[in-house]
Specification:
Blueprint: E1 7-9, E2 16-21, H1 23-26, E3 30-37, E4 48-50, E5 54-61, E6 63-68, E7 71-76, E8 80-83, E9 89-94, E10 100-107, H2 113-131, H3 144-156, E11 159-161, H4 166-182
Antiparallel strand pairs: 1-2, 2-3, 3-10, 4-11, 5-8, 5-10, 6-7, 6-9
């Protein structure tokens, strides 16, 4: 289980994500993360949409850009960005000198402790695969079956790529994703979830 203190780093952008509150601390209703984005780091997650989840981002340090409903905005330290369910968005990325830090809170809309392990686990797995050269320039698995297994885990929790029709993503999940899982592919692999010492939390 992913608990408070778990940490994973995107090897492409250097963005480091640390869990402050996981399923145990929130009763399975969401999570709280602290995210460190180095100077010059682009967005580390593609434009996407959650059908049920609400997200809030507090800029703790530095200057950020983000996208909401297809429009780009800026935010400074002290600003809080609300991203409602059903609206496509891109998480904040660094827009200035030095480190940009934000605190992210997700509210699932129901009790869903598996979502913490599955979604954070997916991104930890992608980071692990990236370090092994198995992820392409857009941050997606190169292997088609691995991609399908990853998609299936995200679709399970109603998270979708904003650039692809949701109906198509559901179809791929139910067909190729199911096949990938039957062949042993997973969206989350325990070997990428080994505990790492958390750095200073903000």
């Amino acid at each position: 289980m992913i608990r408070a203190g778990f940490q994973t780093t995107d090897p492409f952008t250097g963005t480091r994500t640390t869990v402050i509150k996981g399923a145990e601390e929130t009763g399975g209703t969401g999570w709280t993360l602290i995210v460190h984005c180095p100077e010059g780091a682009p967005a580390h997650i593609l434009s996407h949409v959650h059908l049920n989840w609400h997200e809030a981002f507090e800029i703790v340090e530095g200057s950020a850009k983000y996208m909401l409903a297809g429009k780009e905005f800026t935010a400074e330290a002290g600003d809080v960005i609300e991203m409602p369910a059903g609206i496509k968005h891109v998480h904040p990325w660094n827009n200035g000198p030095g480190m940009m830090i934000y605190r992210q809170k997700n509210y699932f809309g129901n009790v869903n402790p598996d979502a913490v392990n599955d979604i954070i686990g997916v991104f930890a797995t992608i980071n692990g695969l990236a370090k092994e050269g198995k992820v392409g320039a857009k941050g997606l698995p190169k292997n088609l079956l691995q991609f399908a297994a990853t998609l299936r885990t995200l679709v399970k929790h109603h998270g979708y790529d904003a650039a692809v029709p949701i109906s198509l993503q559901r179809f791929v999940s139910a067909t190729l994703g199911r096949l990938a899982e039957s062949l042993g592919y997973r969206g989350v692999y325990p070997r990428y979830l080994a505990s790492t010492p958390a750095e200073t939390l903000v």
